[in-house]
Amino acid sequence: MAVDLTNFEKPEYFVNRELSWLKFDERVLSEARDKQVPLFERLKFLSITSSNLDEFYMVRVASLKDQVHAGYEKPDIAGLTPKKQLQEISERTHELVHTQYSTLYRSVIPALEKVGMHVVDKHEDLNEEQAAFVDHYFEENVYPVLTPMAMDSSRPFPLVRNKTLNIGALVAMKEKEKKKGKESLQFATVQVPSVLPRIIRIPSVKEGDTTVIMLEEIIERNIGKLFLGHHVVCAHPYRIMRNADLSIEEEGAEDLLEEIEKSLKKRQWGEVIRLEIEDKVDDRLLKILKKEFDVKDEDIFFISGAIDLTMLMKVYSEPGFDEYKEERYTPAPVTDFMDNNDIFAVVRQKDVFLHHPYMSFDPVVNFVRQAAKDPDVLAIKQTLYRVSGNSPIIAALAQAAENGKQVSVLVELKARFDEEHNIVWAKMLEKAGCHVIYGLVGLKTHSKITLVVRREETGIRRYVHLATGNYNDSTAKLYTDCGIFTCDERIGEDATAVFNMLSGYSEPKRWNKLIVAPLWMKDRFLYLIEREAENAKKGIPAKITAKMNSLCDPVIMAALYYASSCGVEIHLLVRGICCLKTGIPGVSENIHVRSIVGTFLEHARIFDFCNAGNDELYMGSADWMPRNLDRRVEIVFPVEDEQIKKELRHILDLEFADNMKAHILQPDGTYEKQDKRGKVLVNSQMEFCQEATLKAKEEKKRAKAGSTRVFVPAEPMQDSGEEE
After folding, report:
1. Would residue 446 show up in a list of annotated catalytic residues for this protein?
2. Starting at the edge strand that comes first in sequence, how are the strands of the sheet with 231-242 ordered?
3. Active-site residue among 446, 571, 592, 603?
4. For the residues 275-294, what does the mean pLDDT come to?
């Protein structure tokens, strides 16, 4: 089925990817601005906004700067050249940062003061007792760690590492070293040591309150002690962001592991693409930094407060303010495994659905642990993209190899900002006897799949876990993801083919069930979208419901526009980047887009195609982005079990009913929350928590009574009738 989509590929139909991402960070920031969000949770959202912006600059902005340096002028799908994109990004990010600090200092900090949390961000505000405490803390804990670095004729400008917080100072020389009639100023810089806590608790004025100060303020207050015999004219905190996008020539790299290790070192010394500095900075100091870092005016951010708000996560962690935080949710047990902890026995009976973090991630860990110890298990094969710091899955894989199993692990060395972490795991697994694969040249392996091959009375049986999220037991408590266990023979054959493709040169002629990128997936999605369009033209029921992290593939978006123009009802839940527009007459009037930003990070990918009333549902690791569909090994898998289909539809229905955390994309490109006055409040994430907990309780009751299983959806929260 080939459709001409050129009429739906006009630049005015699309939004620039980077500007769309900034809209996402604005949605994160809006949670910090929402006074209905618990006070300390607002701190978290401010911190997340900063962390997001850091990565955006180090990777996306850095890439655009590389394009400008190379003279690349081709416009993107929205008609913007790299230079024009940088101009608009600079303007939007300056607005975003201004709003961020305004939110912190005009709204959040005053609210914290009222509940007994005092954040001192100017050392001049300390009282006598606090000042004495801070000075003693400096002498005992900070001074021995500091290394002031000066610049003069014999000492060049020091190397300043990426993302480190520093204090720049101008120091007046001794009288005898001054030039005649002119004060001689020397530049010096001190790195705020990351080995010490950024937030330090100090005595409070009022008993029972908590008061904290930032480490850089303690250093700035005592900076004269680092330059004895000299006068410190001024001292101002600053931080730089460098180009951290790794460029690796894989074709010419004899050893990918070694090549990535070399490139990681360069990340600390890449081009400076952003400078954050105190807004009251001395012009003479700023002039030196601008020259030495070769940074443009549009890339300088004058900060009216503490630099690098990721430190607010430390303020959040201060004990004693639980009433101003969301109650910590404990994932519910997976009911299918409550009566039987033999995962293989359960999966032989039926496919099992997992919904994290509402359901526990333990069965996934136990799947590998049980396989490692089971004498009948012959082989374990798994893809690893990001894993936790002390991963129980890694430990189980190593144990399996030591127990004589065939263990093959694909460790994706190119997982951004986890490269160093993954290199450590890869070496450890190799030492344990695992066969470690580093992926295919030119492609990242982003698929989430585990295959266990087991010898049973009836012969060899393959057990497979497929998921939308990483094998990371830590993020599984924070990210919403879905997965299934199955021993379907056709999926087992496909899983074997996937690992053969990754470890060798085998490329299957056909797949039974799995849809694999980069060769087969995009065409399959286009077929499914165009089938809905053809059904709509015939008057047959046609609908597409899809949930993903990002949507920016031009061909997929053009196909969605075509389907919409044919009358297909399209509902999209896109957490982050969304480059299509809604409400374009004759093009996207039938497309509805929403984004949920809540306590958990929405990460699952679910696709539902009406198929004339015979729904086809899929889950998988891939977003509708060029990198996922064209440059990565991804897996999307069909969901055929009717009960799991029902659960997936329930997930989608509840998220599209969410009117508390959902932001609706408007035709003008803005995102707005719904007017909730007089409506039943629906917070999908909180209701999933309630449902999973209630389902586990019902299963316990059922087990005691010996009755059949019951699933009772949670009651929605009632609206107070007040405007947000």
Report:
1. yes
2. 149-151, 185-191, 165-172, 231-242, 272-278, 300-303
3. 446
4. 95
In 3D space, the residue among 213, 167, 220 whose CA is nearest the CA of residue 191 turns out to be: 167
Residue 457 phi/psi, 5° resolution? Answer: -60, -35
Residue 36 DSSP label = T
* pLDDT tens digit sequence for 49-73: 999 999 999 999 999 998 998 899 9
The token pair that represents 678 in the structure block: 């007089």
For position 675, what pLDDT does the model report?
A: 86
Rg (CA), the chain: 28
Cα of 361 vs its chain's centroid, Å: 19
Checking if the pLDDT of 152 tops 80, the result is no
Q: Does domain 517-674 have CATH number 3.30.870.10?
A: yes
Say how far apart CA 331 and CA 361 lie, in whole Å.
8
With cut-offs at 50, 70 and 90, classify the pLDDT of residue 19: very high
pTM of the model: 0.91
Contacts of range 278-283, beta carbons closer than 8 Å, 24 or more positions apart = 278/236, 278/237, 278/238, 278/302, 278/303, 278/307, 279/303, 279/304, 280/236, 281/234, 281/236, 281/238, 282/170, 282/233, 282/234, 282/236
Protein fold of 335-513: Endonuclease; Chain A (3.30.870)
Task: Indicate if the pLDDT at residue 458 is higher than 80.
Answer: yes
Between CA 604 and CA 610 the distance in angstroms is 20
**Measured between alpha carbons, how far is 522 from 636 in angstroms, rounded to an integer?**
11
Three-state DSSP class for residue 145: helix
Backbone angles phi, psi at 54, to 5 degrees: -60, -50
Rounded to whole angstroms, how far apart are CA atoms 102 and 422?
38
Extents of the domains making up the chain: 1-113, 122-304, 335-513, 517-674
CA 607 to chain centre: 21
Identical topology for domains 122-304 and 517-674: no
Q: Which of 482, 465, 452, 515 is nearest to 600 (CA)?
A: 482
For residue 580, give every residue at least 6 positions away whose Cβ sits within 8 Å of its Cβ, in sequence order, or none.
13, 14, 15, 551, 557, 560, 561, 588, 591, 593
Rounded distance between C-alpha atoms, residue 65 and residue 57, angstroms = 10
- What is the pLDDT at residue 703? 78
Q: 361 is written with which tokens?
A: 């991630």
3-state secondary structure of 650: helix
Q: Which of 406, 399, 385, 416 is nearest to 455 (CA)?
A: 406
Structure tokens that stand for 281 in this block = 């900075």
Q: Which fold has domain 122-304?
A: polyphosphate kinase like (3.30.1840)
**Per CATH, which fold does 1-113 belong to?**
Methane Monooxygenase Hydroxylase; Chain G, domain 1 (1.20.58)
Residue 46 structure tokens = 């401010």
